[in-house]
Each structure stands twice: as C-alpha cells, then as structure tokens.
Amino acid sequence: MYIWLVKDKIKTLVREAPRSPGVYIFKNDMGDVIYVGKAKDLAIRLSSYIANPASLLPKVAKMVHEADSLDFFLTESELEALLLEAKLIRQNQPWYNSQAKDDKQPLYIQISSDIFPKITTIRRQDITDKKAACFGPFPSSKTVFIVLKMLRKIFPFCSQAKIGTRPCFYNHLGLCRPCPSQIIKYEGQERIRLTRQYRQNIFKIKKILSGDLRRIIKDLELEMKIASKKEHFEEASEIKNKIERLKYIAQKPTSPDLFLAHPNLPGERAAEGILAFWHRVSPHFFVGEVPRLAEAYDISNISGKLAVGSQVTFLDGQAFKKGYKRYKIRNQQGPNDVGMMGEMLQRRFKHKDWELPGLVLVDGGRQQVMAAQKALRRERLNIPLVGLAKREETIIIYKDNGEFEEMKLKRNDPALHFVQRIRDEAHRFAQSYHHLLMRNRLKKIDES
Q1: Residue 334 is part of which domain span?
Q2: Among 36, 62, 279, 413, which residue is least crowded by beta carbons within 10 Å?
Q3: How distant, in Å, are the alpha carbons of 337, 350, 366, 383 from that of 379?
Q4: In 3D, which of 111, 108, 30, 113 has the Cα closest to residue 69?
Q5: Is residue 243 situated within a structural domain?
Q6: What is the pLDDT of residues 55-77, one digit of tens each?
Q7: d(CA 368, CA 361)
Q8: Do 149 and 157 touch, CB atoms closer than 8 A?
Q9: What is the number of domains present in the chain?
Q10: Dist CA 103 CA 119 (whole Å)
C-alpha cells in the first residue's frame, strides 16, 4: 500500500493551530483551494491529518499530500464555523469537498397536519400537502439538518413515515418521545396526556421556526418555576436544560463575510470589548491599567438543591480554560444565591498561590456584589468588582468609596457584549456542573 507523505511545512502549520472553533483551508502549490473543513477544536482536528498518515482514507491522505499551504479562520461557535465553511465551499468549489456540493433547489422544513404531525425536509416542487406548515427556503441542506438536530434534542418529534406497532429507533435515543407508536397503545386520559405532550413539542417547534423564540423561553421559565415549587426537581432540571439550549441556538451568528475580512475576529472583538468596558468603569476605581486577567462567578441550583458555583477566567478578553474552577456549595441551606456567592468567593480568595485577577465579575445585583466585596475585604484585597443584573442587563459597580453605581449600556455597545460574554460563560460552566450532579443523583436512585 502506498503511503502519501505530508510536507514539513504543513506539519509546522498544523502544530501552530489554536484550540478554538474555526474553519481551515488546504491549498495546493498553485494556490488553489483543494479542501475546506470546520472543527470545534482546530488543533485537535488538524493534528489528526498528520498523526498517522497510514491510517487516513486514501482520498484524505492524497489531499493532505497535495496540500502546500494551510489557512484557518477562528470563529466563536461551531454554528458560525458551519456557516463560514458552507460559504467557502460555495465560493471555491474544492475538488475534495465534492460531496458537500449541492446545486439542487433549496430545502424546506415541512410539518404535516396529522394528529401526530411529522417533521420532514422537502423541496418546493415536492410539496403536495396544502394543510402542512412549511418553513424556508434554506440555502443549505446541511443548515437544515443542523437546525432540526438542535431542535430535536430539545423538543423530540417523530420522523417515521407510518405509525408502527412498537416505539421507533429514535425513541430509544430520546429523540422521539413520546413516540406516536407508543401513544396509540394507551387508552383514556393517559393517551390524551401523551398526545397533548407530543403536539406541544410540535407547537413549540413551529413557534421557533416562525421566529417567536422569546415567547417559548418565557413559557418554559414559567413551567420550570411551577415544577420547582411542586418539588418536581427532575422535571424542573429538564426544562432548565431546554431553556439553556434554546438560548444558545437563539444567538445571532456572525456573517461569514466578516470572518473573511478579519481572520482573527474573535481576538479583535475581545480586545475591543475589554477596552470599551474598562473605559466605562475605570473612573470608579483607583486603577489605571486595563486588566489582562478577569474572573467571573455564577451559581446554579434548583431551590437550593445540588448547589454549585463556577469560576471562569478570561485572559486579554478571551477564555482561559486552565483557570476555570468549580465549587460544590457546602454551608448554605435552601435557595440563598447571595450566601452561596459569598461562600464561593471566600474559598477562592483563600488560595494565596492562585494568580489574582485584575477584575472580578459576579452574576447578580447589589446583594451579590456586596457578598463578593465582603469576601475580598476579608482577605484584604482591593480588586475592581462589578456585577451584571440579568433583568435589565444593568452593570453594578462597587466603587472604592463603598458606594454603588448603576450603569446601563446600549445593546450594541462592545462593552456590554464583553461583560455578557464572560457572564454567560460562567453561567454555562455552572449549569454543566449542576446537570452533572443531577444526572449522577438520578443514576444512583435508579440503581437503588
């Protein structure tokens, strides 16, 4: 078997790739684009091309052998990488991306008018059900499948052509639940309940595809509060997870053209954001230099149960994951986010061997900021401290004279985007730890 060799210059470029989502481009010695790919982590994905060439598929090995140069564009999410990848493939039509070419008519998402509506993809000329709801067109079939994959994990739905005698394969994966093939086996109130549950999933998907996502999130938040008050914590946790996933996919992606014009767009945005933010808040502190290291903190729990805290670190405005920490809350009983925040900050700043940040951000209003300040004062630390209150995205500043200053920034202000980004990352990290503990507890209950 012939083994295609990889050029040394490609190996060097691969080793320089960052641990970031993005898009990569291989070009041949004529400067032609021969392959475009995307990755959640560029360093890991690209290293797979050079680690063991003999293990690559022949077509892939030949492509890497022909490659004479490598470029990559950093993005802020996998979804942005997907959109940029699709644009570059359409522009360059690389030979090794032939399987990604799609010259057919754009796809639509169709939701049938059945008692148990089916969700399928369809092209315009194939639409025959006049009562069906259709959404689109979507310029890329890959984009359609990504959207449906995201939604199906949140609101399961059926895709099989006919109702069978037993639950479908996707039911076992949690992607068709409740399954119509299972619902029809029940009678009376249970059948009515399961049918309503399935149709509610479809209704919410319709609303999201129609652009009414905010209303769905508000409805779910209300459902979560009701479940929590009834101490249905497993149900509340599931709803909370749906809300977080919906908020993630609701983020407006950046235009691929912007990444092409600015290959280091995330870094540029980060620098612009922290400079703008520091320009707004620095007059309230006796510190002149822009902080390189910033830490953000958040709490996650359901009515005080399985309470955890998160610490995320940003270096020069970008996530520095080696500095991430997570905490189990030990000394607080019941729903007391303020006390939990104080406990976490106190434990963090007792570590004299950890590098101190130049800025501390807490998720919350005046009470959370005050709890954080007490923890800092206990360790005789004077670090600029701010909070971000969720309801109106108000920045709470604890000034050196002991007073509070509230600041509201415009929605398109880079300073607000920076503080939201670091706050949201702390929230995501806390949520992931809380969900891990919840899953472990439920597993123990099932095993007992």
Answers
A1: 264-447
A2: 279
A3: 21, 7, 20, 11
A4: 30
A5: no
A6: 788 888 888 899 999 998 887 66
A7: 10
A8: no
A9: 3
A10: 23
Instruction: Provide φ and ψ at 285, rounded to 5°.
Output: -125, 155
Are 122 and 67 within one domain? no
Residue 109, strand partner residues: 121, 135
- The pLDDT of residue 310 is 95
Is 0.90 topped by the overall pTM?
Answer: no
The stretch 218-240 carries a mean pLDDT of 83
**Residues 306, 437 within the same domain:** yes
Which residues are bridge partners to 295 per DSSP? 313, 360
How big is the chain, counted in residues?
448
Task: Label the pairing between strands 385-389 and 359-363.
Answer: parallel
Amino acid residing at 281: V
Q: What is the CATH number of the domain that holds 88?
A: 3.40.1440.10
Q: For 32-58, how does the pLDDT look when each residue is reduced to its tens digit (9 = 90+)?
A: 999 988 888 888 889 988 887 777 888
Distance of CA 110 to the CA centre of its chain: 26
User: For residue 141, what are the contacts with CB-CB under 8 A and spacing of at least 6?
Assistant: 102, 104, 107, 121
**AA letter at 47:** S
Question: Rounded to an integer, what distance in angstroms lies between the CA atom of residue 292 and that of residue 357?
Answer: 8
Per the DSSP assignment, residues forming a β-bridge with 69 are: 27
Domain boundary among 52, 76, 100: 100
